[in-house]
């Protein structure tokens, strides 16, 4: 198998492409976004004029792993069974969780309080 001969500029270009394609996480605080890590990697890669084969191969591995995650390769390769996504005890659990994650960033303080009160006073 041939070794990956990517130079630091190519790796930085891949990091830039990942940065432009990576979706933002509206739940996570801005300072903890994955985009910040990608920006840091671009600076480190461009800043290292004396590239070692170890740093470029690690950068290549990181880039490959990020592309695999971005393209949902593992989800496609290993799909979850429907029974796991809709358990018999609570078939709507994951649907409700996804809806909650979409609504949460836009909810106001008052909306959070209302949601909390509704959850405290559940009637079955």
TrEMBL record:
Xref: InterPro entries: Cbp6
GO cellular component, one term: Cbp3p-Cbp6 complex
Gene Ontology MF, one: ribosome binding
GO BP annotations listed: mitochondrial respiratory chain complex III assembly
A Pfam family assignment: UQCC2_CBP6
Protein name, per record: Uncharacterized protein
Lineage of the species this protein comes from: Eukaryota, Fungi, Dikarya, Ascomycota, Pezizomycotina
